[in-house]
Amino acid sequence: MPGKTLPPYPYASILNLEIEEIDWHRWQRLVNTVADMFNAPATFINQANLKGIEVIIASQKPETHYQPGSSSLDTNIYCHHVVKNSSELYVRNAGQDQKWNDNPEYTEDNYVSYLGLPISWPDGSVFGTLCVLDTKVTNYPQTYINALAVIKEVIDSDLRHLYKENQLLTLSYTDPLTQIFNRRGFTDLLRSTQELAQRLNRKLILLYFDLDEFKHANDTFGHDAGDIMLKTFAKTLKKNSRSCDLVARWGGDEFIVLIHAESESCVNLFTERLNTLLARQQLEHDIKYSFGYAVIKPGDKAELDELLKHADDYMYQNKLSKK
Fold first, then answer.
1. pTM higher than the cut 0.90
2. Domain count, the chain
3. Where is the GGDEF domain (predicted)?
């Protein structure tokens, strides 16, 4: 795929990584099956990464022009539009839309038809595309498009499994009251999560929560009410998080969440959703909290103690702002 020089996506290529948690042979069979089902010359699983749109799996047909490792940066190819809009794109006939006049897939390779669906990381951001290209005008029935969506969901599930393999939940890792990770579980899983994020060139944010006036509520309403507050907050944190995030009770009324994030703006989005969910709870005492956070960029060598100190300093300022 011809291209320019500006990488539009921040993720590392999974082709350059030794990822045993993904069944690559199954992905190949899925792609070949799609090509046969659509009677199409080319089907791909692509990743949006530092190389642009990179072919990860290609159908094994003579008419398939691109092979794994082929990539396009900021040329006007179909898949860029799927990733940018995080939505399905079906181009039945590129010749009827001037938008594609500078698309080399159309002008050079004669792929006049394109059907693509976004593949998602567990955090909801776009991993890449599952797409079908053809050299003839097409009009696929909706049943075919639905079948492609089911196959896409299988690939989504494999990416979730990639994260779950790094989050095996055992009794020794679980807080018995709240049923989320305990300090040991979080500490042990933090390293593997950081390593995975480093391999994928992904940013992490460590969120640190402390319940306000918990001791007062515990003393006033009793320990049972205090336990209900802790369990409710933990359950709400978990509900507000994604399958790839780590949620833990750090101790007492302190909680930690490790999220995969595109930017620090995710912190505000997270706390806004959390506040909305907490407002729906029917408790004797409203749950209020202070929080802090620390950003972990790919390649950061900071230890957990240093990250917690940074988050705690932020949380202290958050507490002061309420007085």
1. no
2. 2
3. 202-323
Same domain membership, residue 195 and residue 234 = yes
Question: Which tokens go with 69?
Answer: 């490792």
Domain that holds residue 98: 14-162
Q: How far apart are the C-alpha atoms of 70 and 305, rounded to whole Å?
A: 42
CA dist 76 and 104 (Å) reads 8
Q: In whole angstroms, what is the distance from residue 209 CA to residue 221 CA?
A: 22
Per-residue pLDDT tens, the chain, 323 aa: give them: 444 444 468 788 888 766 677 889 999 999 999 999 999 999 999 999 988 999 999 999 988 989 999 998 878 999 999 999 999 999 999 999 999 999 999 999 999 999 999 999 887 889 999 999 999 999 999 999 999 999 999 999 998 887 765 555 456 788 889 989 999 889 988 888 888 888 888 899 999 999 998 888 888 888 888 899 999 999 999 999 987 889 999 999 999 999 988 788 899 999 999 999 999 988 777 899 999 999 998 888 778 899 999 998 988 887 777 76
Considering the domain architecture, whether residues 242 and 305 belong to the same structural domain is answered as yes
Tell which of 136, 162, 188 closes a domain. Answer: 162
- Secondary structure element (H or E) that encloses residue 235, with its range: helix 223-240
Q: Is 214 helix (H, G, I), strand (E, B) or coil?
A: helix
